[in-house]
Design goal:
By secondary structure, this protein is of the alpha/beta class. The strands form eleven sheets. A seven-stranded parallel beta sheet has the order 29-28-27-30-31-32-33, sandwiched between helices. A five-stranded mixed beta sheet has the order 9-8-7-12-19, sandwiched between helices.
Length: 946
């Protein structure tokens, strides 16, 4: 007889009523729990009996000592102390365990194998859960044991019931452990689901400490470039799963796969960033933890399948991997040897089963059996007289169903899946350019005729692939349905080989793998993506088995609701976002202090002002100006001004800039009084509308005429807002350019290239408002924060007065080369594809803690100075902030450039803030034909009839 594993016993014990709750109910003083395992032919029964010692006032005891009272499921026990209700419950009835291998049978395990040389993979699918354990041997990967269980609590690749999903995982892992004869403590988990998305990203850095001298590219340069590509505008409800570098560009020479050792001044990386919904990812991690395991790594299933089935030649020629699972189809597109696109389509083999269940009026189990035995996608390949005998639901007698009818039901769904696959390919490249065609894996690829249907629909070569080259148990893992789990094993094996068998330092924040799943074979996908010293590992380890504790992942920061991963992931610090020490705000009205005002004009400007107020921007006065009285009353600005009372009567400008201009002219005297005492005024507005576009030039003219330094920070509209609004914005910007000293223009359309396709329109406009905030705060902080070598208002005015367009960069650094890193980030401008070279005026501010050294300041200043025009006027300031020990922040404002079409405020690296313009994005290709998830749930053969 073989008893269930300790993991199973602990999970069963955990499902009893919490002892703390019993204690509160019965005022218990002491507990003792006895666990009983009873063997029978039907399975193993696990039961728990709790003995409770009550604690009530002595008056209720009758002077007697408290006595242990057994709490049973057979009776209600009564004493003079208390009445205790039945609490014992049968926790689980397990199926009879699998028999042990017969004497002399080969056991694919070695208990003496070091855990560092053992890797376990978990394919958490919609229809099945598969676990495999392998040893990383000198001759390769040797599989020791496998286990499978029917999937529960999963739908379309996402978790819908954590407890049931954890039970399925525990069942599969237990089976693998019994076969391997080892205990599994951590697993590499495949990740799928319709929430997965990808986007292109670029990172640009100057090579070395001297941006004007040529030297070799080093590993730290590559790491900084990749880190710059990582700084993307990911919505708060999503997180980065993988950063996959594609190739590098060194001084304009593109297509470089390995930049190490090449010489140049500028290094650029083109990467693909894969993101997922934070809640969906955390649910997967929690399932693994509830099953008593650690999550070593999370790997996109499409990448794992590619690791298992693709040949090197296919990668070079271009190929598509389509892993057709039960609830989703995971896609990875490779061009020129590197990853180009990933996607997850919420449709898979279970949809075919569902279609058959509807078409045959059967239950899902019967439909699945018929699909596996008789299912085919092509009618004409089947004999006309071939039938299937089955009993539909509600029928008493069996009926004969033509097999061609099955193909009539299955065929439309297969064609739909193929069409969605090629649509995803077209987002990246022309299908004809992928000579390797489509490689199908996953259980859904076994559907007869599907490869032929896919070839007809896509007009590409199609083949069904199985994993090969795995030692030990090829027969157990042979078949396309096991491609993911084999790929996960290889992923983990190669990661251990590269990291020197380390088992900590995860960079995607979900486990303890050494280097983000680096693969020697596919190493160029991930070069520089992770670093053991800069990991975001959760350190969410399972306690030793048998201690009665059930592992639970940390719950994260309740105040931010960001989840366990982000709450436990160390990040590079950003001074503005840290918890502030008590500091009394400076009174800007005192003599010697510049008076700074921020004027938000119209709806867009007012929204930006609101965001600055919520960000606790200090040392400035906020003013909201609008023609719409209702919108003005909702502003959080302490000073509000309604312009054009007679003209608009508080109803707004109606999108007409002429009305906004006339309204400002009507209120010119009031505006002059309101802004009369300002030294610096930021004019912020969203261009393209009525009030902001028309009134901003008038207000800027008033401010500048009074002698104040006038800086415009405005946005251009999204393209979807229409050609008329775009044209209106261009005219407004042209009018404003001549009225301000310096103008920073932020095109909202860029947000379409740096945000996820699922970003809501509300979030998109919120992001635009936040970029306006960064532009204003990056300049005002130079004046409002006192320093050792102060940058005062006169310094800022010298650099920005009458300079036209400006470029602003903010860099952060920590570690031994923190100052140089911060300076390099600040002087590089990926958005403009240039550094500050050519700037005639430079404003430089170095902020650091009391540990800031003279050498660091000199190094940073020299790097910035040598990157600018040789004749540039440079004004330098240093701020010592004891809250900034261990880090350096460098702010550079460059002006006096030759005329450019468009300059945008950028922050080169702000890790805790939204980074929308730290990197350049490649144009987003046209979206594929849209589909509704609800429509996909309708059988395809019925939709074709509508």
């Amino acid at each position: 007889m073989q008893l269930p594993s300790m993991r199973t016993c602990m999970r069963a014990l955990h499902r009893t009523p919490p002892l703390s709750a019993v204690s509160r109910q019965y005022r218990a003083m002491e507990f003792r729990c006895d666990v009983t395992l009873t063997w029978s032919e039907s399975g193993v029964k696990i039961a728990v009996c709790c003995f409770v010692t009550t604690l009530d006032p002595p008056a209720r005891w009758g002077g007697r000592r408290p006595v242990p009272v057994p709490v049973t499921d057979r009776s209600v026990c009564s004493t003079s102390c208390a009445v205790l209700r039945a609490q014992t419950r049968h926790l689980a009835v397990l199926p009879p365990p699998a028999p042990m291998p017969p004497p002399g049978a080969r056991l694919y395990s070695s208990p003496n194998v070091s855990r560092a040389r053992r890797v376990a993979a978990l394919d958490l699918g919609t229809t099945k859960v598969c676990c495999a354990v392998a040893e990383v041997a000198s001759e390769g990967l040797v599989v020791q044991g496998t286990g499978e269980a029917p999937s529960r609590g999963m739908r379309k690749g996402s978790v819908i019931d954590i407890e049931r999903a954890a039970e399925a995982v525990a069942e599969a892992v237990d089976a693998a452990e019994r076969m391997a004869g080892v205990e599994v403590s951590q697993v590499i988990v495949g990740l799928a689901g319709g929430h997965i998305a990808s986007q292109a990203s670029r990172g640009l850095v100057a090579v070395g400490a001297d941006a004007k001298r040529i030297r070799e590219v080093r590993l730290q340069d590559v790491a900084r470039a990749v880190e710059a590509a990582r700084a993307v505008g990911v919505p708060s409800d999503r997180e980065i799963v993988h950063l996959l570098p594609r190739h590098f560009t060194v001084d304009g020479q593109d297509g470089v796969r390995d930049a190490l050792g090449m010489t140049g001044m500028r290094l650029e990386v083109e990467a693909l960033i894969v993101t997922g919904a934070t809640t969906a990812i955390q649910n997967v991690v929690k399932v693994v933890h509830e099953a008593g395991l650690d999550c070593e790594d999370l790997v996109l299933q499409a990448l794992a399948s590619a690791e298992a089935v693709l040949a090197e030649e296919e990668l070079e020629r271009g190929v598509v991997v389509a892993d057709v699972g039960g609830g989703t189809t995971d896609i990875a597109v490779f061009c020129g040897g590197s990853i180009a696109h990933t996607a997850v389509i919420p449709i898979g083999g279970s949809h075919v089963t569902g279609d058959l269940a509807v078409g045959l009026r059967s239950d899902l189990e019967t439909a699945e059996i018929i699909k596996r035995q008789y299912g085919h996608c092509l009618q004409l390949t089947l004999p006309a007289d071939a039938t299937v005998t089955m009993t539909p639901m509600g029928y008493e007698e069996a009926v004969q169903v033509p097999q061609r009818y099955l193909a009539e039901v299955i065929g439309p769904r297969a064609r739909e899946m193929a069409a969605l696959i090629v649509a995803e390919v077209e987002r990246t490249t022309t299908p004809a350019s992928l000579a390797g065609g489509i490689v199908l894996t996953g259980g859904g690829a076994l559907l007869r005729g599907f490869a032929e249907i896919a070839q007809q629909v896509t007009d590409m070569p199609v083949r069904v692939a199985s994993p090969v080259g795995t030692g030990g148990m090829d027969e157990a893992l042979h078949g396309p349905e096991h491609a993911t789990v084999v790929g996960l094993l290889r992923w983990g094996a190669r990661a251990r080989a590269r990291s020197g068998v380390r088992s900590n330092g995860r960079s995607n924040g979900h486990g303890h793998g050494g280097d983000d799943g680096f693969s020697e074979r596919f190493g160029r996908w991930f070069l520089g993506a992770g670093d053991g010293d800069d990991s975001n590992g959760d350190q969410r380890q399972r306690p030793p088995r048998g201690n009665g504790a059930v592992p639970r992942p940390p719950q994260g920061d309740a105040t931010t609701n960001r989840g366990a991963r982000e709450a436990h992931s160390p990040q590079r610090p950003r001074m503005e976002m840290r918890e502030e020490l008590p500091v009394k705000d400076m009174d800007r009205t005192l003599e010697g202090n510049a008076r700074i005002k921020v004027v938000g004009i119209g709806g867009g400007g007012s929204n930006a002002v609101n965001r600055m107020i919520r960000s606790k921007l200090r040392g400035v006065e906020f003013i909201a100006v609008n023609t719409d009285l209702q919108a003005l009353n909702s502003s959080e600005a302490p000073m509000k001004m309604h312009i054009g009372r007679k003209l608009t009567r508080g109803l707004g400008a109606g999108g007409n800039p002429s009305v906004g201009q006339d309204a400002a002219e009507e209120s010119r005297e009031e505006l002059q009084k309101l802004l009369a005492d300002a030294d610096m005024v930021f004019v912020t507005a969203g261009m393209g509308g009525g009030t902001g576009t028309g009134a901003a030039p008038v207000i800027a003219e008033i401010v500048r005429a009074q002698g104040a330094l006038t800086i415009g920070v405005v946005t251009k509209p999204f393209r979807f807002e229409g050609v008329r609004r775009q044209k209106c914005a261009e005219e407004g910007i042209g009018n404003l350019q001549s009225k301000v000293d310096t103008l920073i223009t932020i095109p909202n359309e860029r947000l379409m290239q740096v945000t996820d396709k699922k970003t809501t329109i509300t979030d998109a406009f919120r992001i635009a408002d936040d970029v306006l905030r960064q532009g204003v705060q990056g300049i005002s902080d130079l004046i409002t924060y006192p320093g050792l070598i102060n940058l005062d208002f006169a310094d800022v005015k010298t650099i920005m007065s009458g300079q036209g367009a400006a470029l602003m960069g903010i860099g952060f650094g920590s570690g031994d080369t923190r100052a140089a890193d911060a300076a390099r980030d600040a002087v590089a401008s990926p958005l403009l594809e240039t550094t500050i070279a050519g700037a005639k005026g430079i404003l430089l501010n170095v902020t650091g803690g009391t540990d800031l050294t003279l050498f660091e300041v000199n190094e940073a200043a020299q790097l910035v100075a040598e990157s600018a025009d040789p004749e540039a006027q440079i004004i330098f300031g240093t701020v010592i902030d004891d809250r900034s020990n261990g880090e350096v922040k460098i702010t550079v404002i460059a002006t006096g450039f030759a005329p450019r079409e468009e300059l945008v405020a950028t922050t080169a690296y702000e890790p805790n803030a939204r980074q929308y313009f730290a990197t350049e994005r490649s144009p987003v290709p046209a979206a594929p034909p849209s589909y509704s998830v609800d429509d996909l749930d309708i059988p395809a053969f019925l939709r074709d009839r509508r």
